[in-house]
Amino acid sequence: MDQLKTLALTGYGHFTSMRVEDGRVRGLSLHLDRLVRDCQALFGAELDPERVRDLARRVAPTEGACVVRVTVFDPNFDMGHPAAKADPQVFVTTRPAANLPLAPMRVQSREYVRDLPSVKSVGLFGQLLHRRAAQLNGFDDALFVDERSLVSEGGTWNIGFFDGERVIWPEAGILGGVTMQLLKDAHAHEEMPVRLADVAGMQAVFATNAAIGVRAVSGVDDIALTDDHPIIDTLRKAYMEVPADPL
């Protein structure tokens, strides 16, 4: 456990979270690619994806569902010398998986842009600070916008829209989620800037990540949204039909 002190005290590292069902994962190769890519970005080091699979396989049950989180960090990371040669290690944990689909959620827009959005960093201070503020204001979570009111993402999820004709993913600096990518591959879509003012004109809004699948958004700020539009079920079906790979 002493090795984990560095992770706790510096918050420098990266991770991915996978929903494992009966020993299988949708988008497994995308999760592994993310870990390899982010390890190179943060540590300048190679990561063996097969070793990651083996470690995850040891803790994941072969029956039922859980969420497996794979965290990569360097136990010897020195805040004074972050450019020193790294020796990143893998830390695998599990938590129960929620039953899907989750109930619709209401979100509050918050002005925030994450550091290095392309990397799934363990540094969640900003995201959780804004999630807490949104919940204190009576919402379920926070939706991030920049100084120009361009919508990007939630703290731990991507957001998508349906304008009546097309599925739209916001064009912004975001973490490209695995579930979002699987849905992009499975369903026609467009990518374009979405402003907060555009939300009221959308017929449906939804959130995605590996743990929640596709979750309807029933409101943004004081804008009430339809949470049972047929496109939500269409996207859920498309996601559930994605073949899952054995861990």
Please name the defining characteristics of this protein.
9-stranded mixed β-sheet, alpha+beta, 247 residues
Brief write-up:
This protein starts with a helix and ends with a strand. The protein is 27% helix and 31% strand.
- On the 0 to 100 scale, the average pLDDT is 97
Number of strands: 14
pLDDT below 50 for ≥5 consecutive residues: which ranges?
A: none
Helix content: 25-40%
Taking the sheet with the most strands, its summary is: 9 strands, mixed
Q: Which strand-content bin applies to the residues?
A: 25-35%
Radius of gyration: 18 Å
Tally of helical runs: 6
Order of helices and strands: HEEHHEEEHEEEEHEEEEHE
Taken from the alpha-carbon principal axes, the silhouette is globular
What is the CA-CA span between the terminal residues? Answer: 26 Å
The structural class is alpha+beta
Family: Belongs to the class-IV pyridoxal-phosphate-dependent aminotransferase family.
InterPro entries: Aminotrans_IV, Aminotransferase-like, BCAT-like_C, BCAT-like_N, Class-IV_PLP-Dep_Aminotrnsfr
Keywords: Aminotransferase, Transferase
GO molecular function: transaminase activity
